[in-house]
Amino acid sequence: MIKVAVIGGSGYTGAILAKLIAQHNELCLSGLYVSAGSADKGKALSSLYPELMGQVDQPLLPLTDAALAAIDADAVCLATEHHVSAQLAPTLLEHGCKVFDLSGGHRFADAAVFPQFYGFDHPAPQLLTDAVYGLAEWAQASLAQAALIAVPGCYPTASLLALKPLKQKGLISEQGVPVINAVSGVSGAGRKASLISSFCNVSLTPYGVLGHRHQPEIETQLDHPVVFTPHLGAFKRGILATVTVPVAPGTTEADVAAAYACYDASSKVYQLPAGQWPKIDDVAGSDRCLLGWKLDSERQVLVVASAIDNLMKGAASQALQCILIRFGIEGAL
Ligand SMILES: NC(=O)C1=CN([C@@H]2O[C@H](COP(=O)(O)OP(=O)(O)OC[C@H]3O[C@@H](n4cnc5c(N)ncnc54)[C@H](OP(=O)(O)O)[C@@H]3O)[C@@H](O)[C@H]2O)C=CC1
Ligand SMILES: CC(=O)N[C@@H](CCC(=O)OP(=O)(O)O)C(=O)O
Asked: CB-based contacts of 323: which residues, under 8 Å, 6+ apart?
């Protein structure tokens, strides 16, 4: 049994991850933590999320010292804000735990990205070059050895699963810039009440235009420039990323199909039959990514639509995949 603690256990991603860990027969939940001053400390997780009654009734413990979470844990998951994860990770690693960070606190090797896109100076820049970016389908070998795993962002997961097979096969025009328009449900903003995510305020609108922190994350992991525009939509869960890709001259449908054949039957990525497009409702609550695409070979343009659940493949279920790969447990892919 691998013992896993979750810090940020009362949040949207942390609660789902706690459930996935509790359900897995080779993992057990060693502790669930919230901040030392949390209004929820001492409460059972299932009192916040009644659908978890009988599944995760453990109490949310106040994290007065990061080392507490390391007690009796092989792994610790950080479902906390970026700067909180960055502060907690060094102590957990010093105590010998494998750390799975769901935030953006360790997704860049270059510490200079943090003040620019995250608004803080990284407290442990020496850890960044060894952190493994856990896009599960693309990082199996490096995950198997990693101590610190940066679980990818939700929009980057949807975008990179669509774009990386094309890049790998040289199908993205060298001079061209893929354009990603992605819509997220409101749970992407987390559980805390805010005007931005209040029911009457949410409609459908772009935000973070030409400045969202996921643009450099996608570009770094793809090794290609992109234009990324996120949108907030009036639904709870899911992301639909529609990606317009300028393709290399001569690219055929057979080339695109061959590129996506990298996702075999055991992966969490599924291609829809030609002419079918993914819908948010097809992925909400699931650990899968659905892809649909169409090529205009005359105009050398490919449109790919990629749908995931932001809280699952975009966060918690991808973290679970990373844990399973890291500890050599079957069923990750
Ligand atoms: N929501 C999403 O779709 C996705 C989120 N992520 C990332 O995952 C992380 C978690 O996101 P999400 O679940 O949405 O966030 P939430 O706001 O829903 O939850 C945050 C959790 O962190 C706890 N917390 C806050 N401060 C501390 C602290 N100092 N020590 C310990 N626990 C603390 C909160 O409890 P309390 O405040 O009561 O202490 C709460 O349990 C974020 O970094 C987010 O960017 C990544 C991909 C997708
Ligand atoms: C709808 C919404 O607000 N989405 C969040 C992205 C989700 C997230 O938490 O970002 P990370 O993957 O970087 O952790 C945002 O745009 O900031």
From this structure: 2, 4, 21, 27, 75, 77, 100, 329
Q: Is 154 a catalytic residue?
A: yes
- Note whether residue 231 is domain-resident: yes
The DSSP call for residue 107 is S
pLDDT tens-digit profile of 122-171? 999 999 999 999 999 999 999 999 999 999 999 999 999 999 999 999 99
Ligand nearest to the CA of 81: 1
Closest-CA residue, ligand 1 atom 14, reads: 190
How is the beta sheet containing 60-63 ordered, strand by strand? 60-63, 27-35, 2-7, 75-78, 98-101, 148-150, 132-133
Active-site position among 77, 97, 154, 322: 154
Q: What is the ipTM of this complex?
A: 0.98
Atom of ligand 2 nearest to the CA of 13: 9
**Residue 221 is part of a domain; what is its CATH number?**
3.30.360.10
Question: Which domain does 278 fall in, by range?
Answer: 154-310
Q: Is residue 321 a part of any domain in this protein? A: no
Q: Residue 95 C-alpha to ligand 1 middle, in angstroms?
A: 22
Provide φ and ψ at 316, rounded to 5°. Answer: -70, -45
pTM over 0.95: yes
Ligand 2 within 6 A of 8 CB?
no
Nearest ligand 2 atom, CA 185: 1
